[in-house]
Design brief:
The complex is a heterodimer of chains A (385) and B (349). Chain A is mainly beta. Helix content of chain A is 12%, strand content 41%. Chain A has helices spanning 333-351, 353-378; strands at 11-15, 20-24, 29-33, 45-50, 57-62, 66-71, 76-82, 90-96, 99-104, 108-113, 125-128, 133-138, 145-150, 153-159, 168-169, 186-191, 198-202, 206-210, 221-224, 230-235, 241-246, 251-255, 261-265, 272-277, 283-288, 292-297, 303-309, 314-319. In chain A, a hairpin with a 6-residue loop joins strand 4 and strand 5. In chain A, helix 1 (333-351) runs antiparallel to helix 2 (353-378). Chain B folds into 2 domains: 56-95; 109-341, Brix domain (Rossmann fold). Chain B has helices at residues 2-11, 24-36, 60-92, 121-128, 133-136, 154-166, 180-189, 254-264, 337-340, and strands at 144-148, 170-172, 194-201, 204-212, 218-227, 245-249, 277-284, 287-297, 303-321, 330-334. In chain B, strands 1, 2, 3, 4, 5, 6, 7, 8, 9 and 10 form a 10-stranded mixed β-sheet that branches. In chain B, helix 1 packs across helix 2 (24-36). The chains are: A mainly beta (385), B alpha/beta (349).
Chain lengths: 385, 349
């Protein structure tokens, strides 16, 4: 049941215990998926990204340096790929043109051929980005461009098809008013659409915008929020703002045109580990160490929409970008049956009354069955083990 | 109008009863009586216009009097109802319906979805592999370091000494202005499992930081109601060296479980029942009460207890993942009063 309905899950969350959870906000159900059937802490999910072909496959990066492939259509894990090299957990996962890009904490970025049946082949390309990487992000508009940044590791943009040198290497800001070097700790990076700009949020509670197209390598805009390290960031749909979260569970929307705070979101009690906005609707999904997945509405009015308690600490999430959120599609058999019978009955009503009367008991029975099936589905379910 | 005004004025002290329905003829009768008699006035049913309330009387003394009269009447009525119910219960005997349970804030507690189900496998796995797993698997035994904030005063020092007698295998060290971040690696290298820092403000201890080492969570508590041994009435003799038993009460939610496990990991596994000593951490309404007792069983069902040891109350402020790092550490739970304390019936532990 859970596996069958997996494709309709709205949010996929990876946990520290190695379980991938699919949450259906319409039905208010959460389902657990594990590769081995049992949760294992060695498989703690550290990175999630969509696979090839729309939103039908999820790439799950685990702490034991394997990338597992999960199919949302079938609701089970399909294969895995071991990606050795470097030390530390995955800090970024991406896929492009049938290849898989992985980045680990020690700064090794590798591009692998995406044939998941094979055990481990040699990487197609290897880059060394510098130690202490906190995030590697792929540009959704130009999939061969990636950006990396980390603790004492400045923002760099790499072109995987180009040379070994980064396309853009950011420069640190000037020394502060005490003439001390400002430390660098890029925690999250996002590419702004329709331009070459990048936004980063740092562990020193700064939000910076870089523009590779401009001659200056220093940030174009800098804004600060709060007193605690910012751990996650996401772009809002359409509007020129980002939403950042810090280690105290505070979420804030910051305008990128002026660098000012637009508003805050309440509710989280623990450090924010994952944030994602829906591409068109004003919805924001957030997950963190307080073991709860929250979906907020960002605009008119700003507030909490859904809150789901998932029993493990949540590390990262993926929000489905599809539009038919509210309209829960029926299961595949039903749409085929219902219109067929409707057209048949219409014709029958038009032509023969006797035939229609004969059809009626069948229709009632099947309609009744449909309704009971529908009723069963709409009952709020509990989490399945 | 004027007459009623005069009458209500003269009626002032004695003849007034609480408000009743307006009775015109009685009012007229009383008015005449009031006009003629000066001092003592016979208590008659007062007639007030409907919609009158005691709070509209401008004279404070008279208003107060009316109010006390009304209160007395309410109390009388309540007692009468109680007596009647009691009589009915006695009359029915065995067939009487069960007594209704009074509502308390504890039984009106808002449903908390994070309450741990004992059969839950995911939570069981989470707890079996968390930072306390090595203690609960009996691979490590606790070794505690107790210290204070810098330059502690007498009360705090004495509390630390008494705590070290309560917690076995604990050592008190004077904090010579050292940074916690520097103390922690030293503790880890010397095989300490927990660090307790008692924070002091204005000569009284008011905070407790409990950090599990090597990489365990750090809990920050507010401490209040600290009573040292000499301030406890009818206490027993000082505690002995026996390892005490532990009681953890009412830690039901997931957060409560984590905190409860933190407390449990302070004490060694094998309590010595010969010592008959027990340390209790009782959680009620998010306040954790710590008590240390010596018990003796007088018979199968009767126990006598003597309170030894210090006594204090804790309230959790934050639970941080990792060892002490208040600036850059990641918090698992932070208490936010304006968001979390909106309902009197919602608790988190």
């Amino acid at each position: 049941m859970a596996a069958a309905g997996a494709r309709w899950n709205h949010v996929w969350v990876g946990t520290e215990t190695g379980i991938l959870k699919g949450v259906n906000l319409q039905r208010k159900q959460a389902a657990n998926f594990t590769a081995a059937g049992q949760p294992r802490r060695e498989e703690a999910v550290s990175a999630l990204c969509w696979g090839a072909g729309g939103e039908t496959q999820i790439l799950v990066g685990c702490a034991d340096r394997t990338v597992r492939y999960f199919s949302t259509e079938e609701g089970r894990f399909q294969g895995q790929k071991h990606c050795p090299g470097g030390e530390g957990t995955f800090r970024g996962l991406a896929q492009v043109d049938g290849t898989l890009i992985t980045c680990v904490e020690s700064g090794i970025v590798r591009v692998w051929r995406d044939n998941d049946k094979e055990a481990s082949s040699d990487p197609l390309l290897e880059l060394s980005v510098g130690p202490g990487v906190c995030r590697m992000r792929q540009d959704p508009a130009h999939p061969h461009l990636i950006a990396t940044g980390g603790k004492e590791n400045a923002l760099k943009v790499w072109d995987l098809q180009g040379s070994e040198e980064p396309v853009f290497r950011a420069k640190n800001v000037r020394n502060d008013w005490l003439d001390l070097r400002v430390p660098i700790w890029d925690q999250d990076i996002q590419f702004l659409p329709e331009s070459q700009k990048l936004v980063t949020c740092t562990g020193y509670h700064q939000v910076r915008v870089y523009d590779p197209a401009s001659p200056q390598r220093r940030p174009v805009l800098e804004a600060t929020y709060g007193e605690y390290p910012l751990t996650a960031m996401t772009l809002t749909p359409g509007a020129n703002s980002v939403i950042v979260g810090n280690t105290h569970g505070q979420l804030a929307e910051i305008d990128l045109r002026q660098g000012r705070l637009l508003g805050c979101l309440k509710g989280l009690a623990g450090s924010v580990r994952g944030l994602q906005c829906h591409p068109s609707k004003p919805l924001l999904a957030s997950c963190g160490l307080d073991r709860v997945l929250r979906v907020h509405r960002i605009r008119n009015p700003r507030g909490l929409e859904h809150k789901v308690y998932l029993k493990s600490q949540l590390n990262c999430l993926l929000l489905s970008g599809r539009d038919n959120w509210e309209d829960e599609p029926q299961e595949p058999q039903e749409p085929k049956k219902a219109p067929l019978e409707d057209t048949e009955t219409d014709e029958l009503w038009a032509s023969l009354e006797a035939a229609a009367k004969r059809k009626l008991p069948d229709l009632e029975r099947t309609q009744g069955a449909l309704q009971t099936r529908r009723r069963k589905k709409q009952r709020p379910g509990s989490t399945s083990p | 109008m004027a007459k009623t005004g005069v009458n209500s004025g003269s009626r002032g002290k004695k003849g007034l009863k609480r408000k009743a329905a307006a009775e015109e003829p009685q009012e007229a009768a009383v008015a005449e009586d009031g006009a003629t008699e000066s001092g003592v006035q016979p208590p008659k049913a007062a007639a007030f216009p409907p919609g009158f309330s005691i709070s509209e009387i401008k004279n404070k003394q008279r208003r107060h009097l009316m109010f006390t009269r009304w209160k007395q009447q309410q109390r009388k009525e309540k007692l009468a109802i109680k007596k009647k119910l009691k009589k009915e219960r006695e009359a029915l005997g065995d067939k009487a319906p069960p007594k209704p349970v009074p509502k308390t804030i504890d039984n009106q507690r808002v449903y908390d979805e994070t309450v741990v189900d004992p059969n839950d496998e995911e939570v069981a796995y989470d707890e079996a592999t968390d930072e306390f797993a090595s203690y609960f698997n009996r691979q490590t035994s606790p070794k505690i370091l107790i210290t204070t904030s810098d330059r502690p005063h007498g009360r705090t020092v004495r509390l630390c000494e008494q705590l070290s007698t309560v917690i076995p295998n604990s050592h008190v060290y004077y904090r010579r202005g050292l940074a916690l971040k520097k103390i922690i690696p030293q503790c880890i290298s010397r095989d300490f499992t927990d660090l307790i820092v008692i924070n002091e403000d204005r000569k009284t201890p008011n905070g407790l930081i409990l950090s599990h080492l090597p990489n365990g969570p750090t809990a920050h508590f507010k401490m209040s109601s600290v009573r040292l041994r000499k301030e406890i009435k009818r206490r027993g003799k000082d505690p002995t060296e026996h390892i005490p038993e532990i009681i953890l009460n009412n830690f039901t939610t997931r957060l409560g479980h984590s905190v409860g496990r933190m407390f449990a990991s302070l004490f060694p596994h094998n309590p010595q029942f010969i010592g008959r000593q027990v340390a209790t951490f009782h959680n009620q309404r998010d306040y954790i009460f710590f008590r240390f007792h010596r018990y003796i069983f007088k018979s199968e069902k009767k126990v006598g207890i003597q309170e030894l040891g210090p006594r204090f109350t804790l309230k959790l402020r934050s639970l941080q993942k990792g060892t002490f790092d208040s600036k850059y550490g990641e918090y698992e739970w932070v208490h936010k009063p304006r968001e979390m304390d909106t309902s009197r019936r919602k608790f988190h532990l």
